[in-house]
Records
---
Amino acid sequence: MLRVVVLISGGGSNLRALLEATRDAEYPAHVVAVGADREAEGLAHAEAFGIPAFTVPYSSFPSREAWGDELLATIAEWQPDLVVLSGLMRLLPPAVVEALAPRLINTHPAYLPEFPGAHGVRDALAAGVAQTGASVIVVDTGVDTGPILAQERVPVLPDDTEHSLHERIKPVERRLLIDVVRGIADGSIGLGAASTP
């Protein structure tokens, strides 16, 4: 059974979808802890599912590196096989990425390498493209530049707003995340070749 720690910053909708998937006795992974970099609404999902939660507040540390050191130490206490970034709106320090790689994955609301960064949905609309998508990647020390594990196209409709487009991407992100975690757990998706140089 794959041991997963999920890190969030906000509402945790991907987290909830993953927790719901793990209710199935056939699903080969379980979430052992949920962490956040602030008091996040999504921690309520952990409570609802009886999952331990922790907070390592970014604002409590003098530097990103000091915060990262404490976050890494706290994650290590749970001995996860995989760490999932699920709406963690903060770049991890390189030392944290390197310590966890390649067992560190993230979802992104675009068809990478198109539209990386914090505003993938807005950037797709601004570019006037006919389609965008969702991706699940291995996290590296770049911005959304890691190896792609799964992705799927989502059409952009003529009357789409950033909100409406994002709302149609989110279910695809959730499904891809659940499938990728399952694939990592059952060995059909390998991470070995994705290690940080």
---
Amino acid sequence: MATSSAAGKTIVITGGAGGLGKAIASAFLAADANVAVFDVNEARLKETAAEWEKYGDKFITAQIDITDETAVNTFFANASAKFGRIDLLVNNAGIMDKFDAAGTTPLDLWNRVIGVNLTGAYLCTKAAINAFETQSPSGGTIISIGSIASVRGLNAGAAYTASKHGLLGLMRNTAGFYGPKGIYSIAFLMGGMNTNVIDAFATGVNQEGMATVTGANPFDPAKQFVGLDDVAKYCIFFSDPAVAETSNGATININKNWPSA
């Protein structure tokens, strides 16, 4: 059997204890990579760590608020110290808004969504770049989990849409500044997935806003949900630096052609 290109690499995944992050982390562990994940949800972390015991010392987990720069930097330092280097960051952590337009978005919700989806991704991108530049050999790759809401205006509320548009700008700027240094940055533009992002709906949504969004973008989960394991395969593919270099600064649509126009 051919050895996976991910074997021996070290992968940091944010929001890695559930949903898409867990699927990505599990795929890398199965490919003989080292995995470092953090998540804000302590219960999910404990459950996931128990499931991964068969991988021995190939992984580390930590409960961290992604908006805490000191905690983020400490985690990256610990991952580098344990595994010797970091090869790939997957900016996966994200939360949904409640389909509010700008005129009805509460400031605290705006700050929370921007904080997790954009500021958190910036803090992790910054920490990863600092690790990539100082390790030997230098270099690494950053995959940011964007959304069709990164390029479309009516697939979510104002806060989520702005955060994912901003994430795309961060990705492209990083690609431009650091590509010549062997640090590559790409984004996946995701369609609908069955992930923990829907936790935000537990306390209710703006029904009028949701009706506006779903009316503009009819969605059939049975046909249009993107499989989490399939997204993980893309991550493993782009963990090869030679492949990542060819797509530096690019967006990769993973959405089953939804919406189609």
---
Amino acid sequence: MVTNLLQPPMTDSHVSLLICRTMNAMKLQNFVPARNHSRINTSRFGERPLWFRPITIIKVAEHNSGSGLIELETLAQKKRELYQAVEGINRGIFGMPSAKKSEIESLVQQLESLNPTPYPTQELETVAGCWRLVYSTISILGSKRTKLGLRDFISLDEFFQTIDISKSKAVNMIKFSARGLSLLSGQLSIEASFKIASTTRVDINFENSTITPDQLMNVFRKNYDLLLNIFNPEGWLEITYVDDSMRIGRDDKSNIFVLERFDDSNNS
């Protein structure tokens, strides 16, 4: 009975055949593509050892998209840092500490070096529409501010720019308000035309300006030339950075402008 359960001894030929079959099976296994990679990367006991991961597939993915993802992450981070840096400084128009100005300009330069639109005037649709100023090196200090009455009486509110590429027109709209006197709240509008001067630069020509309502014009009439001198965009503008939500420019007066895209349906 026991004898029947025992297998006959393996001959040399049997051993050789078994070894060959085992080796062939191992070779075939090496060529079988891994399946369900997402299921073998980790387990409830933690990560698998490195040798067990589909390294080739991971490397290919990194090669194809890694640098692009890193650049997008860097852009997003720098934009966040810039928005944080300009918080609470009223666009910088009324001055700021030199350390803060250096911090902002450093971030501006970093973004300019990552500009995703290197030839903006060849893609003018990227600059079309309404933009809101978030930072500028235009300054209204000392006697300028006093003469304009901006210290105690009139405050400077939002600054918008609307660009119509079909007409090669740009309109700057500077809003003012008077504390406690809603009738004196209004805006200065400056209309200008522009033409392409290079792949990054446009030349700007002043056309006309208006202040509404008339009561606000009466406040600024005496120093209207000074007001226009501050906000008149005539000259040239270099577009140094533009994407779907932010635009940076530098003009011939060494000013820097940082603007964010704005839904002009809310701009009334």
